[in-house]
Each structure stands twice: as C-alpha cells, then as structure tokens.
TrEMBL record, chain A:
Compartments, as annotated in UniProt: Cell membrane
The NADH:quinone oxidoreductase/Mrp antiporter transmembrane domain, residue ranges: 137-345, 365-463
Main location: membrane
Keyword Ribosomal protein tagged: no
Highest classification ranks of the organism: Archaea, Methanobacteriati, Methanobacteriota, Stenosarchaea group, Halobacteria
Protein name: Multicomponent Na+:H+ antiporter subunit D
Membrane-topology descriptor: Multi-pass membrane protein
GO molecular function: NADH dehydrogenase (ubiquinone) activity
Membrane-spanning residues: 6-24, 33-50, 86-109, 116-135, 141-159, 171-190, 210-231, 264-283, 295-320, 327-354, 360-377, 413-435, 447-469, 490-510
A Gene Ontology cellular-component term: plasma membrane
GO BP: ATP synthesis coupled electron transport
Source organism per UniProt: Haloarchaeobius iranensis
InterPro entries in the cross-refs: CPA3_Na-H_Antiporter_D, NADH_UbQ_OxRdtase, ND/Mrp_TM
UniProt keyword annotations, A-Z: Cell membrane, Membrane, Transmembrane, Transmembrane helix
Automatic annotation (TrEMBL), chain B:
Keyword Protein biosynthesis attached: no
Recorded GO CC terms: plasma membrane
Biological source species: Haloarchaeobius iranensis
Signal peptide region: none
Domain Na+/H+ antiporter MnhB subunit-related protein residue range list: 10-164
Protein name, entry field: Multisubunit sodium/proton antiporter, MrpB subunit
Residue ranges of the TM segments: 13-31, 38-58, 90-114, 153-172
PANTHER family recorded: NA(+)/H(+) ANTIPORTER SUBUNIT B (PTHR33932), NA(+)_H(+) ANTIPORTER SUBUNIT B (PTHR33932:SF4)
Primary localization: membrane
One family name in Pfam for this protein: MnhB
Alphabetized InterPro entries for the sequence: CPA3_antiporter_subunitB, MnhB
UniProtKB/TrEMBL annotation, chain C:
Protein keywords: Cell membrane, Membrane, Transmembrane, Transmembrane helix
Major subcellular location class: membrane
Name this protein carries in UniProt: Multisubunit sodium/proton antiporter, MrpC subunit
Transmembrane region(s): 6-22, 29-50, 70-93
GO cellular component, as recorded: plasma membrane
InterPro entries: CPA3_antiporter_subunitC, NUOK/Mnh_C1-like
Membrane topology field: Multi-pass membrane protein
C-alpha cells in the first residue's frame, strides 16, 4: 500500500503547500518559508517516485508502471493516476525547474506581490502540471489543465505592468476558447468510445468491433484535441500568444511557462497520440498525402509541418529582436519546433516500422527519446536564460539590448550562467543540449528524412545566430551606462548558475538520462502494458499493435 | 446613522424577509449534499448570493462594520477592503478542510479522497416496550454520517470565501 | 427531432459566441467566450447516451428504464464551476483594463502596448 501512495505524493505535496501558503498569507516570512520547504519537499517526493518507478515497481504485475485509483473507485470508472517512465521523466524535469524558479521568485518578486497571492498560485500551477503528468483520465486532464491555466492567468496578468494588460487579456481569451474546444473534443470522444479512461479508450480503439465503436469520428476529434495541445505548446500556427505572454509575465513565471507548462502540451501529445490514438485499429484514411492506416499516419505529417514552421518562424524572428525576453520567447517557439519534428519522426517510425540501431531499436523510440531529451534541455536552458534575463532586469533595470553591453565584465557570475545555458541551447558538448540536438539529427538520419536534416541544421544555425547576438549585444562590448551603475543581485545569479550547472551535469552524466528517456519512450509506446497496469483486460497483446 | 439610506424601503424589507430563507435553504442543501441533490458548491453560491443582497441593499460598510467590526476605508488599495482578508482566510481554511478529508483517508491506508459513510441507529433492545419505539429510535434518531459531508463543508467555505472576496474587491472599487 | 433542435441551438450558440469574440469591446469578448464555453457544456449534455444502466445505479436503479448517462452531467457540473471561475476572472481583468487604460476598446488599447 505504501508504494501506491507514493504515486499521488508529488500532487499532494504541491497541493498541501499551496493551501498552507494560503492559510499563512498574513505572515510574509512564514509564507516564504512554507513555500520554499514545499518546493524542496516536492523535489523529494518526485525523486522518491522516480526511484520507485525506475526500480521496476509496478501495479497488476507490470514492471515500471504504478497506478493509483483515486477515491478507491475501480478503473475504468474512477479516476486513475499512472506513474510510468514517461510521467516520471516529465516530473523530474518539472521538479528541477520549479524549485529553482521558486527560489528565484522569493528573491525577485516584490514584497507586496508575494504577500497577495504569488506563492499559492505558483504551487497551484505546480499542482496542475503534476496532475496533468500523472492522470490517465482524459477529462481529469482537462481539469488539471484548467488548474494550471487559471493560476498562470493570474501570474501573467497581475504581476505585469499596465503596458502588458492587453497581452495578458489575449492570453486569457485564447486559452479560454482553447479550453472550450478541449471540452468539445472530450465530449465527442466520450460519446464515440464510451469511456474517459485513457487505457480503456486505447483498448476500445484497438478493438472497435467488440465495443461497438465507429472509428471515423475519432480522427477528427483527436485533431480538435491536437489543436488545443498545440496551443499550449505554442507551436506554429498557434504560437502568436507566446511572445506577448512571456514578455508580460515576471521572469520566474516565464521560466516556468517556457520550461514546464509548454512541456505539458508536448507530454499530452505523446501520451494521447502515441499511447492511445496510435492503436486505433486500421482505419481507412482517404486523405491526400497520408500513407498508412493509423491516426499517426495523419498526425506525422501534421507534426512535421508544424514543427518545421516553428523552427523557421521562431528562429528567424528571434534573430532581430531588440530585447532579451522577446528573443527568448521567439527562441522557445523555434526550440519547441525541434521537439515537434522529433515527434514527427517518431510518428513516421510507428507507422512505417523503421528500424534504428541499438539501444533504440526503432525510429519510434529514437524519435520520442530525442523529443524527451530535447524537452529536458529546453526546460533547463530556457528556464536558466529567462531567470538570467530577470536577474539582468533586477540588476540593470532594463533588458533592452540598446541599454545593455559589457555585462560579462561587470557581473561575471551571471554571465557564466547565461553563457553555459546559451551554449546548451546551441548544443555544444558536453552540455545536455548537444545530446538533444544529436538525438534529433540521429532520428532524422534514421528516418531517412533529408528535409528533416536540413531543417534541423537550419534551426541550429539560427540558434547560433540569435544566441551570439544576445551575447554580443548584452554581455560583451563596451559597458553601457546602465550596466556601469547596476547593483548586482548575487542571490539571483546563484539560481541561474545552479540551473546552468545542472544542464552541464546532465550532459556529463548523460547515460542514466538517455536510458530514462529510452524507457520513457518505450513506456509511451507500450500501450499493452499501460492497459494492463491500469487493471483492464488487454486486447492488444494478440494483434501486436502495442509493440 | 442607519445603513442603506439610498435604497427603497421595499428593497430593505424584502431583503430582511428573504435573507433568512436563503440562508436556511443554503444550509439544508449543504447538509443533504453528500447523497442527495445539493452540496457544498451550490450551498456556497446561495450563501454568497445572500451576502450579495446585503451588499446591494445595505452597502458594504454595513457588513464590514456591524458583522466583523472592522473600520471601513474605501481606499481601493491592492488587497481591497479589510474584510477581503477574512474571506481569503476562509477560502484557505476551506481548502485545507477539503484536502484534509482526502488526506485523512490515506491515514487509514486507503487512496486519497476515499470516503465512507454509515447509518447509525440506536439499539431498541431495552426500550422496545415503549410504544412506537421503532419509529422513535429506528427512524427519528437514525443518523447517517458520511465523511463526504466534511469535504462538502470544505467546498462550502471555499466557495463562500472565494465569491465574497471577488464581490468585495470588485464592489469595493 | 430533439437532436435537430439541439444541433440548431448549438450552432446558433457557437455562432453567437464567435461573433462576440470578434468584437472590439472587451466586455463583449468576455461574453462571447463564456457563451462558447456554455455551448460546449450544452454539447456535452447532448452527448448523454440513453443506453440503459450505468454503474452508479447498481443496487439503486430498480424499476428505472433507460437512464441518461449521469457522467456527462457530472462533467458539465465540473465544467460549469470552472467556467464560472474563469468568467469571473475575465470580468475582473476587463475592469482592470478599463482602470489602467480608460478604455475597453481593443483597437484603442492596441496603440498603447509595444510590439504586437
């Protein structure tokens, strides 16, 4: 029993912390202490859960997949939480970024702002993210999305100046419409498949005849759902809210939005499209340019086009921005593009069954592992860069390139952190970014996609271009007047440095990370295990649809 | 001075009559919510509606000064009027109660949010000679307790605290 | 017949919501968003299938014939509560926009923000 409770532990730690910070909101110091302790406890809970999942503990005899029935209602009627390698990987990434962004916020967000509601909101956002990563119920996913978004609305809106109110409004309205669409798609999926449990849905889709399901609407409904996830992940053509919202939000919140909240969209795409919808029994897709009979045959090209557009648009737009936040925001569109084309290769791998050398075995696993490692890289590096931007703003008072220059000489610690994170974004060994880029290229090569290789190369060149420009304009060159009069905030610099060191450490000790990513990719593709662990009868093992 | 000078006598009289009714209905909804239509959310909304009526008819000063005994300063500061702070605490306490009932289940080794209920009837063994004992002890004193009710109370506090905070902040400006 | 009427109503609601979202006035936009989310709720209710028994009625549903699916209603209740919160927030945000900029016209607001 004790091990099963561990599944819900990260969620509860974040929830209890959020509530406690709310209860003690009159005592600012106590609130900060509770918040910081909660952040540390969250990392601890996630670490224990990861350790448990990695050590092969499992439910219903399936190794490495822990399930948990909330309220003790059995699947598929009750809400199921599932912690497998994929969830564990995403939670690990969340834990690292959230703790450092929290430490940064305590030093960065002004007293009045912290007193009102910053800490409860921050932890509620963490609750939403954690719930999204753990849940195996599609409506519950909607609820966690809402928890996460509702907190992020307030964090974006109320800690931005009047200048950004319109951006915040745009962010809110867009996501509200997105939520309505998500509800529509979920309602449609429920009426089509008769279930909300992801494992049950995968099982029913694989064997539609015996459950009396017509598959035709599933493709359309999953496409509607895909739009919502693409919106959350900020992929072209749903990227336009990204720069305005990131500019409006305070630095640690931007770090969380770019580092973690975007990854929730990516995770949802992996979980739903690779674990659930991929197994829809062969359906006749009479669409132009679509080869194959799985839903992924449709989403593969879609992912590729959207990823390609994101890489180009994000990269090109990032090159000539005139302040640090804008540059980072557009860069994050481009970087998510890398993740998305890796997913496209994986989708192609699932449909065509392409082989890849060991330890991956197939392009499907390689592509997913690439997407996951790249997500980790982007979470660490981009969070560090956004925090660095916040530290520059706090020290110098501006993040416009025209006011900056020569920070490297004035604040070497901060510059070192920025430099390492930027190199990781570019992909220089031995940083984690190198392995992320390498895996994406590897997936492209094994998928035999010359276009993909070219795109990734173009994206890499654009990354070098805008990162170099940010470094040259901001950190090298003559010291500007503002930089000369800056008051360095060493506490803030420390958090940036720690994140940069983590990016370096993950790169140096890369073996366990890539193993975890490969296991996570396998977990995403092993639908049979997923269904069995939830405690449902598996109809997939006979036809081999679950690999 | 008296409150609500700028509203009509009809509004004030109607408010006085309906207010207790609304609150009683709210509480009855709260109490039956664990297994009948009703529940913490709807009871909380009704209670907040009752308070909204008081705000409209008698003004926010009335609630703040006569119920909570706070000074009223309509300065529109960041945190809103002083009473908002109380609502925010109520909101937090409600959340703590609701989450606490979920955590309580874990202390018994059950999954988070597991609830239980039981129907308790006093024994009629020694009082069977009383005429109508079955009715009195079997039906009248039958008590159905459910831990879901505690959760509902938490929800009720959350909704009341949250809604009143919104009303007070927006109305206070 | 019921399906036809509901489909028509849903179509109208979505059309109205979309029309309002595209207006310049922020309050209308908020109305539009909340109408769209209500339309999604109506859609969810119409998804309630009339296909006999459901697990929650086990042991309680004697004598009941075909029952509508209670799950969609639970979903809609959840969605309504969430929609309630977001609408309240959007209205407060609108008020703040008005306070800070003295206008709720999106085109006039557009001139004041940088970039986009």
């Amino acid at each position: 029993m004790a091990t099963e409770q561990l599944v819900v532990a990260p969620l509860l730690v974040a929830l209890v912390t959020a509530i406690l910070t709310l209860v003690v909101h009159r005592y600012v110091r106590a609130q900060k202490a509770v918040s910081a302790l909660g952040g540390v406890a969250y990392v601890g809970a996630v670490a224990m859960l990861i350790q448990r999942v990695r050590s092969g503990a499992g439910s219903h005899g399936v190794e490495g997949v822990l399930t948990y029935q909330l309220s003790n209602w059995g699947a598929p009627f009750g809400i199921t939480l599932v912690a497998d390698d994929l969830s564990a990987f995403m939670l690990g990434l969340t834990a690292v970024v959230s703790l450092l962004a929290l430490a940064f916020s305590i030093l960065y967000v002004d007293e009045a702002g912290q007193r009102v509601s910053y800490h409860p909101l921050y932890h509620f956002m963490l609750v939403g993210v954690t719930g999204s990563f753990l849940t195996a119920d599609i409506f519950n996913l909607f609820v966690w999305f809402e928890v996460m978004l509702m907190s992020s609305y307030v964090l974006v809106v109320f800690y931005s100046g009047p200048r950004h109110t319109k951006a915040a409004l745009q962010y809110v309205v867009l996501n509200l419409v997105g939520s309505a669409f998500m509800l529509l798609a979920i309602g449609g999926l429920y009426s089509t498949t008769g279930t909300l449990n992801m494992a049950d849905m995968a099982r029913r889709l694989a064997d539609p005849a015996s459950f009396g399901i017509t598959l035709a609407p599933v493709l359309g409904l999953s496409a509607v759902l895909f739009v919502v996830f693409a919106l959350k992940a900020g992929i072209v053509p749903f990227q336009w809210w990204v720069p305005a919202a990131y500019r409006a939000a305070p630095a640690p919140v931007s770090a969380m939005l770019a580092g973690v909240v975007k990854k929730v969209g990516i995770y949802a795409i992996i979980r739903l499209y690779f674990t659930v919808f991929a197994n829809a029994a062969p359906m006749d897709l009479a669409l132009p340019g679509v080869v194959g009979e799985s839903t992924l045959a449709f989403f593969g090209p879609v992912l590729f086009i959207m990823g390609a557009a994101s890489i180009i648009l994000g990269g090109v737009a990032a090159v000539n921005r005139d302040n640090v936040d804008d540059l980072l925001a557009y860069s994050s569109i481009g970087q998510v593009g890398f993740i998305v084309i890796a997913l496209a290769f994986a989708a192609g791998g699932v449909v065509a069954g392409w082989q890849a050398p060991e330890p991956y075995g197939s392009v499907a696993v390689l592509g997913l592992a690439a997407a996951l490692v790249y997500s980790l890289n982007h979470a660490l590096a981009k969070a560090a860069l956004f925090l660095a931007s916040g530290a520059v703003y706090e020290s110098v008072g501006s993040i416009e390139f025209e006011d900056l220059g020569g920070i490297a000489g004035r604040m070497p610690l901060l510059s070192a952190g920025f430099f390492v994170a930027a190199l990781s974004l570019v992909g220089i060994p031995p940083l984690v970014g190198f392995f992320g880029k390498f895996l994406v290229f590897d997936a492209a090569v094994n998928a035999g996609s010359n276009l993909g290789i070219g795109l990734a190369l173009l994206g890499a060149i654009l990354t070098i271009a805008y990162v170099t420009r940010a470094w040259n304009r901001g950190f090298w060159g003559e010291r500007s007047e503002a930089v000369e009069q800056a008051t360095p905030q060493y506490g803030l610099f420390a958090t940036v440095l720690v994140l940069a060191v983590v990016a370096l450490g993950v790169g140096v000790a890369f073996d366990p990370v890539v193993e975890a990513a490969i296991d996570a990719a396998n977990a995403a593709l092993e639908t049979g295990d997923y269904i069995e662990a939830v405690g449902l009868e598996d109809s997939l093992t006979s036809d081999g649809g679950g690999h | 001075m008296s409150y609500g000078d700028d509203t009509t006598v009809i509004a004030r009289t109607v408010a006085r009559i309906t207010l207790p009714l609304v609150l009683v209905v709210a509480i009855s909804l709260l109490f039956q919510g664990h297994n009948l239509p009703g529940g913490g959310f709807i009871a909380g909304v009704l209670t907040a509606a009752a308070f909204a009526l008081v705000y409209i008819v008698f003004g926010m000063e009335y609630v703040q000064e006569t119920i909570f005994g706070d000074e009223y300063e309509p300065d529109g500061s960041v945190a809103g009027p002083a009473v908002v702070d109380r609502y925010r605490t109520l909101f937090g306490v409600g959340l703590a109660v609701a989450a606490g009932t979920g955590l309580g289940a874990m202390a018994f080794g059950k999954p988070f949010l597991t609830h239980t209920d039981e129907v308790v009837k006093p024994s009629t063994e020694y009082v069977a000679w009383i005429p109508g004992a079955d009715f009195i002890f079997g039906t009248l004193f039958k008590f159905h307790w459910a831990t879901a009710f505690l959760f509902d109370i938490g929800v009720y506090f959350v909704v009341v605290g949250g809604l009143l905070a919104i009303l007070a902040v927006v109305g206070g400006e | 017949m019921t399906e036809f009427v509901l489909a028509l109503v849903l179509g109208l609601l979505f059309a109205l919501g979309t029309f309002l979202v595209l207006r310049r006035d922020v309050v209308r936009v908020v109305w539009g968003v909340s109408i769209i989310s209500q339309a999604a709720n109506v859609y969810l209710v119409t998804m309630g299938l009339l296909d006999g028994s459901v697990p929650v009625l086990e042991g309680h549903g004697e004598g009941a014939g075909a029952v509508t699916d209670p799950l969609v209603q639970a979903l809609v209740l959840t969605a309504i509560v969430i929609g309630f919160g977001t609408t309240a927030f959007a209205l407060v945000l609108t008020y703040r926009v008005y306070e800070e900029h003295g206008t709720i016209d999106l085109l006039e607001l557009g001139g004041e923000t940088d970039g986009n």
